[in-house]
Amino acid sequence: MTGLADRLMLFEVPTARMLGVEQLAGAVCVWCRSPLTGGAMDLGGLTGFRPRACPPCFQTRVAVLGAYDEWYGHTMSCAVCPGGGPCPSGGALRLHYAQVHQAADKEPMRCIYCPQQITSAEDCLPVVWDGVSVPRRGWVHTACLDPGKQS
Fold this sequence. Notes:
Blueprint: H1 4-11, H2 21-25, E1 41-42, E2 52-53, H3 55-77, H4 88-103, E3 124-130, E4 135-141, H5 142-145
Antiparallel strand pairs: 1-2, 3-4
Helix pairs in contact: 3-4
């Protein structure tokens, strides 16, 4: 998947079974349920599933994607971040991601291993793994990656 709408469908749009009839039809925003007018953003979909978004929700979710991608990309190339604590750039990217994640009114970040909520004081890393049929994104406490560091 290469397009922005495809990536939003993959990582941000709730599954069809979690949406109401108006959301499925594209009559209301897929995220905030506001009635949509001519300025709505088409997110693609299939017959019977035409999710659309209001411009503010669309921009917020695009920001979430961008912040995650930037943070993940950094951690994949940084010599410091995967070792158990973020470098200054990694820490700033994590903070930025946490802010846009919260602004999007998403569920709290939870560790994929322990599955405790990740607080702002805890070191963590973004992770991507192969789901059943699509890639999945999440977060992991760095301490869960090295059990010897857990207290």
